[in-house]
Amino acid sequence: MSKEVKLDLSRIVFIGRTFDEYMSMFKLTKAELKGRSILDCPAGACSFTAYANKLGADVTATDIAYFHDYEDLYTKGMNDLEHAMTKMESAQMNYVWDYFKSVEELKQHRDCALTDCALDMKNYPERYIASALPSLPFKNKQFDMTLSAHFLFMYSDRLDFDFHRQAIQELLRVTKQEIRIFPLVGLTGERYRQLDELLTFLHQQGCSTEEITVGYEFQKGANSMLKITL
After folding, report:
1. pLDDT number for residue 89
2. Which of 7, 59, 187, 227 matches a 20 to 30 Å C-alpha distance to 149?
3. How many Å apart are CA 68 and CA 6, to the nearest integer?
4. pTM for this model (two decimals)
5. For domain 32-229, which CATH number applies: 3.40.800.20, 3.20.20.140, 3.40.630.10, 3.40.50.150?
């Protein structure tokens, strides 16, 4: 996709999670990162790539938002953050306030993630690749591990089963060892209704799967991930 035909930036919400959130939501240890090639898809404004690379991982982030430059994305991210926090004030009852103690603390974490992500994009642009599921510009089995947060299953009201199957098939193509997807619920907090059908598909591909409860729950009901072992 060329710069001339890139998607309208106003349609992209650019908000991310911190490295520590990733470690918790995907139940990762620092030892699991060192020396491994990892894909974060879609990565948004997360700081995982910036920090994991410092710890000896080889992380690549990909997102449709990266068709835009980091300065535009940072400005967009700050505006999106202000808008999201305004809405959060009236929707606090939909969330569990254990990991974050207040809306202000949440905002600080989101601000840090965005700032760290934008700075890393500026300094290491080769780590941030513009693309969108279900078609990724990577080689077969290029990554040891793929992480996918807050996209698949979350938008099951607008992304149908065929999209989910094709997207996960593409993640299988570019991954050697394992895929972790978080969370397993939609925006309403209900478990993805066709998850069992998707698990059957994965088993037919020769994969093993495990639903794992994690120590991270912000959206109510969003406290487990799917681990797919190839």
Report:
1. 84
2. 7
3. 8
4. 0.94
5. 3.40.50.150
Sign, Cα dihedral of 150, 151, 152, 157: positive
Determine the Cα–Cα distance for residues 175 and 230; give it in Å rounded to an integer: 8
pLDDT, tens digit (0-9, with 9 covering 90-100), for 42-59: 999 999 999 999 999 999
Give me the mean pLDDT over the 193-218 stretch: 97
pLDDT 10s digits, 150-163: 999 999 888 999 99
Mean pLDDT of the chain: 93
Q: Which two tokens stand for residue 113?
A: 């993630």
User: Using CA atoms, how far apart are residues 211 and 196, in angstroms rounded to an integer?
Assistant: 11
Structural domain boundaries in the chain = 32-229
Q: Is 141 left (phi over 0), alpha (psi -120 to 50) or beta?
A: left
